Amino acid sequence: MGKTFVFVNQKGGVGKTTSAINIGAYLALEGKKTLLVDFDSQGNMTSGVGVDREKPTVYDLMAGTSPAAEVIRESAIPGLSVIPASIDLSGAAIELVDQEEREYFLKKALAPLQSTYDYILIDCPPSLGILTLNGLVAADAVLIPLQCEYFALEGLTLLLQTVKRVQKTLNPELEIGGIFFTMYDSRTRLAQDVVHQVTSYFKDRVFRTIIPRNVRLSEAPSHGLPICKYDALCVGARSYEKLAKEVLERG
Questions:
Q1: Which of these, 172, 188, 136, lies nearest to 10 by C-alpha position?
Q2: DSSP classification of residue 1
């Protein structure tokens, strides 16, 4: 049975979707059958790998109106599949509010796919609402991208409190898969301080690889390509390749 990771950060613009796409791409290049699950109504993961947002999507899979075989799309990278998202997912958050076992809808939808894929990577919206809660309940481990700035530290504390509550009540098997730094600028003292503080406190929970600021990483999604297909030699690509290998090492 494969392992399911959820990428979570309630702050937007921290490289969460970029990280999910590119780690997934490099896992696939390592021969691991990988499924990306876009669980954000903005659909950035979907368009970031060149897949259209037409129905059926993850919303239809959760609603039971479309089987997985109809929802899953293939990307330009062999072994990397995608369950797309659309704006319909924003309505799902409202529909789930009063339903029983609302936190388990995604978990139930993905359960039949666990044995098919080595890795399932869930990209959640930038919030700690019901959709992100579904992602945390469906996952084996949470991966936390952290931008190197002051407010990121405050956000990390809140996120870890949420993870702890999920572990106590909804998903006792959930682990902290790791924290990794994104958009790192070695020229700033603040970035260095954030890395030092987080690494000192969380120690081996922090990945060794740091993702730097890199314009090629920002350009790749507009072409519908993971960075390994857009510019495999840039510093961003090399960094995500190393990070993906660390994910493999940790299991």
A1: 136
A2: -
As a whole number of angstroms, the distance between CA 180 and CA 144 comes to: 6
pTM: 0.96
Q: How many domains does the chain have?
A: 1
Question: DSSP readout, 104-144?
Answer: GHHHHHHGGGTTT-SEEEEEPPSSSSHHHHHHHHH-SEEEE
Q: How many CB atoms lie within 10 A of CB 54?
A: 10
The tokens for 29 are 């290049």
CATH code of residue 127: 3.40.50.300
pLDDT digits (tens, 9 = 90+) for 100-153: 889 999 999 999 999 999 999 999 999 889 999 999 999 999 999 999 887 877
Q: Classify 188 as helix, strand or coil.
A: coil
Gap between the Cα atoms of 166 and 182, Å rounded: 25
For residue 137 the two structure tokens come to 């309940």
Helix (H) or strand (E) holding 223: none
Q: At what angle do helices 88-96 and 130-138 cross, to 10 degrees?
A: 90
The residue segments making up the domain with residue 109 are 3-250
